[in-house]
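REQUEST ID: PR-0412
SUBMITTED BY: lab tech R.K.
PRIORITY: routine
TASK: structure prediction, single protein chain
INPUT:
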Amino acid sequence: MSEKPVLYFLCTGNSCRSQMAEGLGKEILGDKWEVHSAGIEAHGLNPKAVEMMNEISIDISNQESSIIDSDLLNRTNLVITLCGDARENCPVLSPNVESEHWGLVDPAKAEGTEEEVNQVFREVRDEIKRRITELKERS
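STATUS: complete
OUTPUT:
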């Protein structure tokens, strides 16, 4: 049996978008892809991201916020950056690594009432889910 291709979601702090993407990626693509996430920096797992993922029955509470692992990056098949900072500051990829950019709003910067903030997290989560589902359909 061959190894699964590796999918690496990258963001600035590996606290919200990339964490939700990792959880959704494992749920949707886990039978075909080995899914990871990391950041330019490690800001810790955002509790609101955990809460919003729990709403759709995906538990990311045991995931860890980490910085980009160059060894993992070198064996990655597809890198998806989720913010401009990650795209601009991502280490140089080897020629065999495919990359995509999904520029998404940072839900951690959402302001307003708790419900308004929750809505921003839900919209980002649902957009990530939509894009991962599309990725599954084409892979």
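NOTES: The chain has one domain: 6-138.
REVIEWED BY: pending
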